[in-house]
Task: structure prediction
Amino acid sequence: MGDSLSAEYGLKRGSGWVALLENKLRAEKIQARVINASISGDTTSGGRSRLPALLAQHRPTHLIIELGANDALRGLPLESTRENLSQMVRSARAAGIQVLLVGMQVPPNYGQDYSTRFFAVFSSIAKSQKVALVPFLLKDVADAPDSLRLFQADRIHPREEAHPILLANVWPELKKILK
Result:
């Protein structure tokens, strides 16, 4: 469950990290079906409101939550982001679902204080609720020496060639909770 970073925004279908995950699971001979419930532009509030119906419909054993970037881009209060993500994790865990929370960072123009506090939201939730965490989905993409080559013209959404890196950031933590 995520936003445009997981919904293949600006990419040809089947080339984003979630589609690559399905291929990785097959290659690892892990019997799993991947449902991409990501929506471009989604916020943690939107994800929180959609989650109960999705859990009832699909009855997953694992849930990857990749939300929060649009909250930051819209300047939404950090406490709302924290509460929405926390409630999503609690709901999933109450249903017996393993959760992987995927963290995000905001560009430096948001100021050091906001950036630090936003980044800390994800680790504090993971720690307090004892769920797996990918600290930064865009590691080795947004912080790469020549990062602009890995982004679409909007400088927000990764290009197709960056998505294997995103999967490489998610896979080690996901693999731990698949066992």
In short: The chain has a mean pLDDT of 96. The longest helix spans residues 112-129. The beta strands are 62-65, 98-102, 132-134. The chain has one domain: 17-178.
